[in-house]
Amino acid sequence: MRPVFLLLAGLAWCSHATPVTAQPFRVITRYRAYATPVVMDTLARPYDFAAPIDSVHGALLRAAERFKLKIDLDDRAQGLVGASRFTKVGSLGGERLSRYLHCGSGFGGPYADTYRLTLTVVALENRIGRDSTRVGFAMVGEGQTTEGNSSDPVACASSGVFELRWAQAVARELGLPPPMP
Asked: What is the DSSP annotation of 155-177?
């Protein structure tokens, strides 16, 4: 009996000795084409910027305008900029969607160019120094034929090109050299 008591007492002491930290902010989206919810920060491609986080946040918003993104996620305190669940057909920011996403293909070519895509794009900011910020960019979505909703949607995975283009636009806004892939 005594060893069990000591074990429980030790566990109780450890639980009080360990500081409680806040859970990191997570962006989770759900699409019918995916079996489980998509945790956006697990998809993020990181790029570093030699600029303070406040400057980077403003540059993210200005750069998003170049792609005609309707930003509905803008939380400076959590370091989040993004557009959730918006619909596009054919192109985004002057580029064919198949350049940014892999959704499969058929007789008519890549589904990303011919299907109606529902997308989520986010930029997750982290201060890594006084004048240095790391931003993780992520994009995910699903595609549905434009002929109706009778078929199941297809999953669309990012090629990484959109994330790179957004990072390059942010660097231009900040007057920095463009990040490399």
From this structure: EEEE-SHHHHHHHHHHHHHHT-P
How far is residue 31's CA from residue 18's CA, in Å, rounded to a whole number? 37
Sole residue written with tokens 């090629």? 159
Residue 138's closest CA among 77, 180, 83? 83
| Separation CA 181–CA 46 (nearest Å) | 10
**Which of left, alpha, beta for 79 (phi over 0: left; psi -120 to 50: alpha)?**
left
Collapsing DSSP to helix, strand or coil, 134 comes out as: strand
> Which of 93, 89, 94 lies closest to 141 in space, CA to CA?
89
Residue 115: in which H helix or E strand, if any? none
pLDDT in tens, 27-38: 999 999 999 999
Phi-psi region of 94 (alpha: psi -120 to 50; beta: other; left: phi over 0): left
> What's the rounded Cα separation, in Å, for the pair 57 and 120?
18
Note the pLDDT tens digit of each residue in 100-144: 999 999 998 999 999 999 999 999 999 999 999 999 999 999 999
Tokens describing residue 80: 């989040």
d(CA 47, CA 22) in angstroms, rounded, equals: 24
Side chain identity, residue 50: A
**Whose CA is closest to 97, among 85, 108, 84, 110?**
110
pTM of the model: 0.84
